[in-house]
Amino acid sequence: MRVPPGKRELIATLEASGQNPWVYEGGEGTSLVVLPYGGRILGLYENASDENFLWTNEALDQVESAKAYFPSEVWKNSGGDRTWLGPEVEFFYPNYPDCTTYFQQRSLDPGNYQPTCSSPKQFTLENKLQLRAAWTRHDWHLRMTKTVSPTPNPLREISQSEPEGVRYAGYRLHTALVIEGNSPPESHINLWNLLQLPGGGEMIVPTYFRTQPTTFFGDISPEKLCTEDHVVRYQMGDPGLQKISVKAAALTGRAGYVRTHGDHWDLVIRNFAVDPSEGYFDRWPTQMDDFGYAFQACNINTPDFGQFSELEYHAPAIGGATQRTRSDDVSQVWAYRGNEQGIRKVARLLLNARI
Fold first, then answer.
1. What are phi and psi of 89, to 5 degrees?
2. Alpha helices in the chain (DSSP H)
3. Beta-carbon contacts of residue 158 (< 8 Å; ≥ 6 apart)
4. Of 103, 46, 114, 42, which Cα lies nearest the Cα of 78?
5. CATH 2.70.98 fits 7-204+252-351, yes or no
6. Do 141 and 133 contact (CB within 8 A), yes or no?
7. What are the tens digits of pLDDT across the range 32-42?
8. What's the rounded Cα separation, in Å, for the pair 67 and 10?
9. What are 52-83's pLDDT values in tens digits?
10. How far is residue 312's CA from residue 297's CA, in Å, rounded to a whole number?
11. Are 21 and 123 within 8 A, CB to CB?
């Protein structure tokens, strides 16, 4: 069984591979490792442990494999928290309506992220890029910035409810997208943030009403995907590739992922903004008239890609008929590690869900 590298090993491997990660180690319990290559938040740690809450590619486990990995021509998914742009059908299917080819445009990922601002508690990266839209054949000229900083425990002001035996780490991500040029009236673009987590856990998606997720691809056993009045539960880890999507109107703006590991439990929660009155245009290529999806959960478990789970959300679209040229999205990631009782309590408090 794979043993991912600890914090110090990961940092040393990145540095030995010619990368220059930004490392934050704070007194409030959070440690962060940000990799400019690909604009990734690659490591999230609570200070009592070197165990990463996030998934990293096994190519980063050793210096030798990492040195070979970064210069290679293939698309490199190093792991962690990454930012893409949607709709997916526009930017990842270059021969649409032929969908047999899926391609990550290198101007987007890894892009050419440059540090623009750095302080002991904040790190900003900027990527100027041109992106080709397959469906509309439009070339977008864009500027993306990502600002990472630690964020306090949301339970800190509820002292009587804060569970014992649970440790916390977290960060705030401000992602901005600016259109530097024209956009055709029928075309839109949106920020799309994807949090990659170790596989085999359960995704918990609180909802305002009972809603049935749409399966974008893959076969999911009915016992693995459970819909209740105010929550969707998805037990992830099956072999292959599967993805579900939930519409904005049903979402509360939070989702969590829980897994057991050794003698402890991990719970990672993403808090994100949802506005069902805005436009969400991501859809599956075979369902081009089905709009409104703001959350997705993707299970990956293949020899080529590894095993991990993705907690994904889309920000409202800009460009086109919106007449807006800038999108500012702010989200928080709250991560907890501890005993079963404590993690169950955190899930009830922050997700209104039992695990």
1. -65, -25
2. 7-16, 63-69, 88-91, 340-351
3. 349
4. 42
5. yes
6. no
7. 999 999 999 99
8. 13
9. 999 999 999 999 999 999 998 789 999 999 99
10. 6
11. no
